[in-house]
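Lab notebook, bench 4. Still working through the backlog of constructs that have no structural model yet. Next entry is a single chain of 322 residues. Request: give me the structure tokens for it.
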Amino acid sequence: MNRFLLPRLLLLSGFLLCFSLVAAHPLLAPVPPPPAIDPAVYQLGRALFHDPRLSANQQVSCASCHDLSSHGADALPLSVGVDGAQGQIRALTVYNASLNPMQFWDGRVRTLEEQVDGPLHDVLEMASSWPEVLSRLAQDRQLVAAFEATYAEGMTPQTIRSALADFQRTLVTLNSPFDLWLAGETSAMDAQQQRGYRYFIDYGCVSCHQGANLGGNMVARMGSLHNYMELKGAALNHADLGRYRLTGRDDDRYVFRVPGLRSAALQSHFFHDASASSLEEAIDMMAHYQLGRHLPDEHRRAIAAFLTALVGEHPERQVEQP
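Model written out:
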């Protein structure tokens, strides 16, 4: 089946759903609990996640662009890397990234282990290399000893990747109002959030935003029904090409991995290019460019309210619920 046909069929099914729907949609699921991780591995991964020695100027860590106290990303439209270099694409959240079968906006790698090399080598992010990283970290006797006590191989690129990936697998947000509602707590979502959930289904948002992360498990063209890239004009850049940069196929031009929505209500900017700066603006843009619809104000506000119900809990987060 054509990979763009399935979302359209699912979209059609969304329009046919009864408005009185109150049960869980078969394409949606609660966030599963994190896997059991060796505490020593967790501590190593957490330390590395906050360690600026992974970057060339020893000033940028994973946490610099992925703020765990907030929504797992930063509040900037485009993140800043070594020596003030500005990235070309918005930072994605690391919360619930383990639920995604592909990583990065273009979905170019499948695992969290593979994902580590991307920012480490990117000249606009950490601009580093494994020989540099190992040389710097090898001077930390305590860290070396911790790796030798935890991994038979000691400290290597593979074990650093493993520790970082396993730490990120613990970054799942549980007990969101939506998940509690799915579990039978009928008061976990208020009336407006429940209406927003039904609109989310009826308008067909679920055709792309599905699974436990409400996204992250498929790719779609940015601008399926209206040409989004015309909006950008002269501001169009290489990052806007999406998966085309990987494959060179015209079918992949402007195609991106669909982002998960679990922390969308906490974001300051939206889409790969940060072109929307509020949740309701992002909803309107998606309705127009992806669904070909104009939403009444009440429907847009209700969907936004539903998205606030997707925000779950994690010990690293220090912010109020939306």
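Notes after review: The beta strands are 219-221, 255-257. The CA atoms of residues 222 and 254 lie 6 Å apart. Flag for follow-up if needed.
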